[in-house]
Amino acid sequence: MIQPGIFDLSDRYEKLDKLGDPLPKLDSVVDWEGFRPILETVRDKPRKSNTGRPPFDVVLMFKTLVLQSLYNLSDDQVEFQIRDRYSFCRFLGLMPEGVVPDAKTVWVFRENLKRHDLIDKLFYALDSQIESAGYLPRKGQIVDASIVEAPRQRNSRDENEKIKSGETPEGWSDNKRRQKDV
């Protein structure tokens, strides 16, 4: 395995820019720090102690919700995409090998925003900033593929013979029949 060089990450980001990564443009037209005072109201409880991992920055968490909204991602999928995509890490100001907000953290943050009735207000302000810069915010979608293990049929030989002859094996309930591929 080849050791990474000092400039590999910046070279990768430069290449992403040339290929048309839209996130740096979004980052440049939005005043993210302007959202901080509103977002800080979500963290109304002071930390009990300094032990444990400190919470993620509220602006970073809001930007995570923006990515989730723009790309139509679930909480689990936004966690995966942040871990997987260099463009998402750069947008959030994270290092690709660094700590990433997990799905539960994203969910809790969004629920706190809902509880304070801030989501619509924040996204309206975001859309206004984007539009005043001369852009139209449009959502996209990342199509993901999931590989799920299929249930295995474990029929006895007698059951298989009855199924092949068009009969229903004895003792099969309606629920079991619905689950079997006959």
Brief write-up:
This protein has helices at 8-19, 23-29, 36-40, 58-70, 75-84, 86-92, 103-115, 119-132, 157-164, 174-179. By secondary structure, it is mostly helical.
Tally of structural domains: 2
Distance between the termini: 49 Å
Radius of gyration using CA atoms only:
24 Å
| Strands, total number | 0
Shape descriptor reads elongated
| Percent range of helical residues | 40-55%
The number of helices is 10
Low-confidence stretches: none
Order of helices and strands: HHHHHHHHHH
Q: Structural class of the helices, strands and pairings?
A: mainly alpha
Mean pLDDT: 83
**Major sheet characteristics:** none
Strand fraction equals under 5%
Describe the structure.
This protein has 182 residues and is mostly helical. The chain folds into 2 domains: 8-132, no CATH class; 151-182, no CATH class. Helices cover 52% and strands 0% of the residues. It is built from 10 helices and no strands. Helix 5 (75-84) packs across helix 6 and helix 5 crosses helix 7 (103-115). The longest helix is centred in the last third of the chain and has 14 residues, at 119-132. The radius of gyration is 24 Å and the shape is elongated. The model has no long low-confidence stretch (mean pLDDT 83).
